[in-house]
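Consider the tokenized backbone below.
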């Protein structure tokens, strides 16, 4: 039986819609072995335990790509990453299925193949690539291949995930986006997406607030996340460098200096006072390893 650890991810990072994502020290673990039937156990009651399980589907895809047949799989899932909250839970399943299956077959596919296949299954690479690789990943998906760069990040920043007690499905959060945007808005975003990585990696953190502003998705998605504006305002009032919608939401992510020691406690206090007791606050750091075999 093999055991995999897969990190949560935060995609888009504001302006880098479908292009930027980073991995966080918040993990699912999956134990896996070949079997002649499907035997799946999971902590979470909403995880499918039949052929609709995403880890199983992804493993089967990899077997098929390698010309092998997968009769069944024994899976034991311990999921820390909350589902449908914008923290890459489906990408973690896809990556677990692919890396696990590749390991069981003796590693016929290389890292590039796995990055490509994961993006083909998910439809975009900004969660799948950092879940696999760790660090911050810049990725362009041409529909078949992913052109990517992974950069390890060693910073004094913390990422504070503010996770509400309601789901937001990615399909719904994508369906609310406009089919076309203006040239001006495209320039607004591409300049900020480039500024984000450069500022994060060089320590010019005072740029991060401007760098996370965007006109492609966040203005439309705010309406799907009740109290999002209040949470943004509270986080900025407590000194966050930047706040953005993590992935498709509804989690909101604050980027905070480690010297802002009491940020999480202050957020908790302010959220409670604002009647937002259902929002969880998680203090996370960047994971630079990605998916690993334990
Ligand atoms: N880039 C994706 C989106 C991430 O914002 O829809 C969520 O899967």
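A designed sequence for it:
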């Amino acid at each position: 039986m093999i055991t995999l650890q897969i990190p949560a991810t935060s995609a888009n990072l504001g302006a880098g819609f479908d292009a930027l994502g980073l991995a966080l020290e918040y993990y699912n673990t999956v134990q896996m072995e070949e079997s002649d039937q499907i035997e799946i156990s999971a902590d979470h009651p909403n995880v499918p335990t039949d052929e609709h399980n995403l880890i199983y589907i992804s493993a089967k895809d990899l077997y098929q790509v390698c010309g092998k047949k997968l009769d069944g799989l024994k899976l034991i899932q311990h999921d820390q990453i909350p589902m449908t909250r914008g923290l890459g839970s489906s990408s973690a399943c896809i990556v677990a299925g692919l890396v696990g299956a590749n390991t069981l077959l003796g590693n016929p596919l290389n890292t590039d193949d796995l990055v490509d296949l994961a993006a083909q299954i998910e439809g975009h690479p900004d969660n799948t690539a950092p879940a696999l690789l760790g660090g911050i990943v810049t990725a362009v998906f041409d529909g078949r291949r992913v052109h990517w760069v992974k950069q390890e990040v060693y910073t004094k920043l913390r990422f504070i995930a503010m996770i509400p007690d309601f789901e937001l499905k990615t399909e719904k959060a994508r369906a609310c986006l406009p089919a076309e945007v203006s040239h001006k808005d495209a320039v607004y975003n591409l300049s900020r997406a480039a500024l984000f990585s450069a500022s994060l990696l060089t320590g010019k953190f005072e740029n991060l607030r401007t760098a996370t502003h965007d006109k492609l998705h966040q203005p439309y998605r705010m309406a799907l996340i009740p109290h999002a504006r209040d949470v943004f305002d509270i986080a900025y009032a407590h000194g966050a460098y930047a706040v953005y919608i993590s992935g498709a939401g509804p989690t909101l992510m604050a980027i905070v200096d480690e010297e802002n020691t009491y940020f999480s406690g202050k957020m908790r206090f302010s959220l409670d006072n604002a009647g937002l007791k259902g929002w969880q606050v998680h203090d996370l750091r960047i994971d630079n390893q990605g998916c690993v075999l334990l």
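The domain at 157-284 is CATH 3.30.70.890 (Alpha-Beta Plaits).
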